[in-house]
Fold this protein.
Amino acid sequence: MIGSAIGRIVPQLALLLLTFNVAFGQDETTELSWKFLQDDVYQVELSQNSNTISETNNRRVVNDQEVEVWLEWKVDAVEAQQARMTWKYTRVRSRTSSVNIRTQDRGGESPVPRVVVFDTDAERPSDNASASLWRSVTQLIDKPFRVTMSNQGEITGVAIPDETLEILRTMPGTMRIRTLMTEEGINDVFGRTAIALPSEAMAVGKSWSE
């Protein structure tokens, strides 16, 4: 499986959150941290692309998926080492293409991809597969859940209401969309999207790796 995820936080948020003293001296150190302000609200956009290829019984199945999600982050409380926030998805847009190919076909098979497309900001799709996902995902829009983030940008806690978990349990279609509303999925996607800062103080010329 080949996949990628790209998160975009509005420039104002990046400037507000990542704060450190760029003028400290050669022998001085400073801590890098994400700085949130209580009651602030931020708009976040995430794009995720994935490609999977599997083969079985002389068939090759190729799946491509593009998912874009928009979130709202509201800062509920700022503590010494972490911030507690309420997150909610405000829009989800997805396009999935699936092709099933016979690997030993000598007749030049050209199968037509099965495409499922929906956007929660758009009208209900006309085809049954897209409409089913649209209906399920639309139920998740504006449903709040709690997230705790450390000063280093690490997600340390996720609390999802039982009502939302029930919607996820009965949701048809792709696992990738479902994982965007699970504790494991949120940690995985946003853990790789955000900038993870070092816990130790930094000095001029010192570096760190994620």
In short: The first helix runs from residue 11 to 17.
